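Worked example

This section walks through a single chain of length 368. The input is the sequence exactly as stored; nothing has been trimmed or padded.
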Amino acid sequence: MEKLATWPNKVLMTTELPTGRADGVSNLITHLGPQFVNAGIEVILVQPHPKKGFSLPGYADAKVAFGFPAYYHQFNEQRVDVVHALAPALLGMWALDWAAEHNTPRVASFNTNIPEYMLYYRLSYLRGIAWFLYRCVHNSANLNLAPSQSVAEQMTAHGIKHVEVWGRGVDSKLFNPDKRSEKWRAKLTNGRPTSPVVLYVGRLAGEKNLEILEPTIATLPEAQFVFVGGGPRRKDLEKIFAFPNVTFTGYLFGEELASTYASADIFIFPSLTEGFPNSVLEALSSGLCVVGFDAPGVREIIGDSGAGLLARPNDIESLKDNLFRLISDSSLRSFLGTKGREYALTRTWQNCFARLLDYYRSLRLQPK
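Given that input, the structure is written out below as tokens.
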């Protein structure tokens, strides 16, 4: 048997959507990749062809793969120590099945809460079926990793077994208050750099609950609202938020995204379904305070960091009051932003990777 300190040597990972997208799984792969390299662990990444497969509602810009069997012969000739299915569906199901046949430790990560998102796509009648399918796939793994405690509890409530919490990290060097740019701020505000900047970063989709912000935006003309991202609801939102104090930038990445965070004043996050909102962590790392609803995911981050104000779910008046309070009080914004930055510095990708290795190795110690 290999020494535990040098195990695993090779990990097979699957993802249902092509990498390089603005989503949580791509973010994980991007930041964990260098950690695996530094640890001397080879990663075989199995992902779908970007133009082959089928589209999901609200995800027409990406294709979901059909399956894994074509890889069977290739992997039968290799020694894989761990199979890790990220947000498993078809590819993940096949990979976990292959791992079971070869007595290989099997890990699955819960990333995208498709069953709950269905409530926003007029597919609520399929929610029970979706949870059934999730349960079938995840229960073929030895270990299921949830991004937050609230998601872990939800998974367990729906019959998914062997659930543990595996949090996320943030690149605190990239997402840094020092990236603030007055020139970039002027561009974001259409030439009104002294206006308070309220920022949202993420998919412009139904499950993000963005439409609820319309009355708030309409009654706070002194603030500039900036929406970064794209998605199926962008055109509708541009019509709903047809105010002079609203800017849509499309997707931003790297230094431009980091400068956008740092050049804003407040981060707003109205979603009620997000299990672990990476954008909230990036905002805290950039020195922003957060306004949102008291919902799973964001509640854990703000509860741990103390870096924001949360209103009752869908209580738009309370959310608006919290936002106005922060707009009016720069000292409070600064205090909460400092707390957020301090919290983000504890959420490194190195720590995230070390926790993942601990989970892998816990399976190595279990009798086969």
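What to look for: The mean pLDDT is 90.
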